[in-house]
Amino acid sequence: MPLRLPHVLLESVFVKSGILSSTCTWRLRLQYAHRGFHLSAAAAATPKGKYRQEKPGRGRSGSKTLSKTQFKPTSRTRLVRDLKSKSPTGKYEVARNTHGPSSASKQAATLKEILKDDSVNGRTNSPHSHIVLGEQKLAIEALLDEEFDRSISKIIGQLPESFSSPPLMPSFAQSMKDVLGPDAKPTPIQSLALKHLFSLPRNSKDWNQFLLASETGSGKSIAYLLPLLQLLKETEASATYPPSQLATNPRALVLAPTHELSRQLSTFAKALVHHAKLRVLCASRANVPSTAGARGRGRSARQMMHVVSALSNENKVHGQIEVQPQGLSGARPIDLLVSTPVKALEMVRGWGWDKVVNEEWEREGRIFRPGKPEMGLKRVECVVIDEADILFDPDFRETTLTLLSDISAARGYPVPENAQTINYPFHLILTSATIPASLSSYLTKHHPSLTRLASPNLHRLPATLHTEHVSWTGGNRYADIERRLRRVWAEDALRGTDPETGRLRRSRVLVFCNRSNSVDALGEHLEAKGIPNVTLTSMGSSRAHGSNRHLAGFVKGTERQEATDAEERETPHALITTSLLSRGLDFSPTVQHVFIVDSPRNMIDFLHRAGRSGRAGEHGKVVVFGKLKGRGSGFDTSVKDKVRALSRR
Ligand SMILES: Nc1ncnc2c1ncn2[C@@H]1O[C@H](COP(=O)(O)OP(=O)(O)OP(=O)(O)O)[C@@H](O)[C@H]1O
C-alpha cells in the first residue's frame, strides 16, 4: 500500500522547495488522487517556465526539456488544435440512447483548456481529491476526444426492429435465417442500415454517400452487405451487359485492407447470396502501403505471382466462379468483387503497372512488360470501403483514391484534379469501428454531403468484454505470458468436459504483439515450452498463398469427434500476431481470450485488438500486460485509465 499523505501539503512542500514546478502539480495531483503518492515520469520535476516535450516511447528517457519559445506542438497536437479552430465535423445519426452534444466531451474540452492554462500560468486547481478524480476522468475523456471523433449529436425516432422491415426479398430472408437463425434481431447499426440503405436510388444518377460507424463485433458486415446485395438483385434484370474483352466487370466492389478480411467477407457474402444466386468473386493479396518505395512495390509484385495461382485454385475449390472474358464467352458477369485496393487496381491497370524499373535492369537491357488489364469498371454502381480509417490513412489513401478515380473515369465522370468536394458517380459506403479525427476532418472537407450513421456505443468496448490488467513480474516476460496462457487452460479444465464433444474444452487465445520479431520470439519460446502455436506476420510465408488456410488450423482446431484429448492438446490454441489481424476478422465464437502483450500504440489500435473477442453479444476477455507500478509505469497506467474510460457507459 502506498503511503497516503495529504497531497496539498506535499504539493506545497515540493513547490516551495523548488523541487517541483507548479506547472506539473495538476498531473501530480491526478496521480495522487488515483493511486496514492508516486512521483511518476509525467509528474517529475520540470524547471519552472519550461515545457516537457515527450518523444514517442516510454518513461523519462524519451523526454527533453524545452524553453517556451522552443516548444513545438506535435503533429497530433497541431491537428487537434487545427480541428478545434475549424468548423465542427459532420453530424452523426445515432441508433438509440442519443442525446445532444455530449456534455462530458464539452466539459472535457473546457477542462483541457483549463489544464493547459494551468500548466502555463502555474495556477493550481481545487485541492479536493474527489473533484480531482472527476477531473481526471474528464481529462482522460479529453485525451480520447483527441484520438476519435466523438461528436455524436443528432436524435432520431423509431428504427426497424426486425429484418422484415423493410421487407427482404425471400431469398435473402431465407439466407439470414440460415446464417443467424430464425430469431435474430438487427443490431443498432443494422437498424440504421435498414432505414437508410435499403432506399438507395436504383438506376439513377442520384448517388449517395454513407458512413457506418459502430463498435467492433456489432454486425457492420451484414449492415452493408444485405442492402447492397438486395440492390444488386433488384437491378439484375435491368443491368446492361456491354460486351467486354475483360474477364471481370463487377457491379459492386467491397474493399478491405487485408486479404484475410477480404476472404472472410467474400465467404460471408457467398452465404448471403446462396439462395439469390448472385456471383461473388474474391481477389486479394496482401496490401502494401501506397507510399512504399520501389523496393516495397517490387516485392509485392513478386508475391503477386503466388497469389494469382492460389486465387485460381481457390475458385476451383469453391466451384462457384470461373473467371472468363465475358465478352467472349457470354458468361454471366460478376456481381460483387471483394478485394484489397492494391489487387483491384492491379486487375484494372494490369500486373506490374506501378513497377519501378531499376537501373540494373536497364543496364542489362531487360524489358519489363506489365500485364494486361483484367477488370472493367464501367458497371460499378456501388463501392463499400470496409475499415475506412485504414484505407483512408495516409499510407493507403493514394491507392484507394486512385481506384475510386479510375472507377469514376470509367463511368464517364472523371474526378476533377484538386477537387475540394468529391461526388463519385456511384454509391459510396464507408464503414469502421473507429473514426479518427483525421478521417472525420477529411470527410467533412471532401464529402460534406456524406450521411454518418453511428451506434450509441461507438468508440466503446463491447459491454460483454471483460478487461484485466496484468503487471509484468519483472522477470522473463515470455514466461509471464506462458504462465497466463496455462492459467486460462487450467480454468477451462476446472469447468469440465464439453457436453457436445465430451472432450476437455481448451480456449483459443489470440496474442497481439507490436513487432514481427516479438511474434516470432514469443512463438519460439512457447513452442520450446510445449505450447503449439501459430505465428502470423505481414511478411510471413503462409500468407503468400492467398487463402485463409493458415488461419483455419487455429480457428477450427481438431473438429473430429474421435480426436483424443491428447490430439486436441497438440493442435495450436494460441495465435500470435501483430495488428495485421486486428482489423475486421471475426473469430467468434471460437476466440474468447485476447492477450495484448505490447502496449497498444494508441486507443484505436487497442479497440480493434480487444474487439476480436466479446463479439455479437458473446462473452470475451482481454488481458492487457504492462508495467503498472514504479518507475517507467506512466505510459501503461495511462493506457489502463483510458481503457477504463472506454469501458464506461
Ligand atoms: N443481428 C445479429 N444477431 C446476432 N449475431 C449477429 C448479428 N449480426 C451479426 N452477427 C454476428 O456478429 C459477428 C460480428 O459481425 P461483424 O464481423 O459483421 O462485426 P463488425 O461490426 O464488422 O466488427 P469489426 O468492427 O470488428 O469489423 C458475426 O459472427 C456475425 O455473424
Automatic annotation (TrEMBL):
Coiled coil spans: none
Domain Helicase ATP-binding, chain residue ranges per copy: 201-453
Protein name per the record: RNA helicase
Polar residues: bias regions: 62-77
CDD domains linked to this entry: SF2_C_DEAD
A family per Pfam: Helicase_C
UniProt GO MF annotations: ATP binding; hydrolase activity; nucleic acid binding; RNA helicase activity
PANTHER family given in the database record: DEAD-BOX ATP-DEPENDENT RNA HELICASE 50
Region (Disordered) location: 45-106
Domain Helicase C-terminal: 480-649
Keywords noted in UniProt: ATP-binding, Helicase, Hydrolase, Nucleotide-binding
Reaction equation(s) it catalyzes: ATP + H2O = ADP + phosphate + H(+)
EC id: 3.6.4.13
Source organism superkingdom: Eukaryota
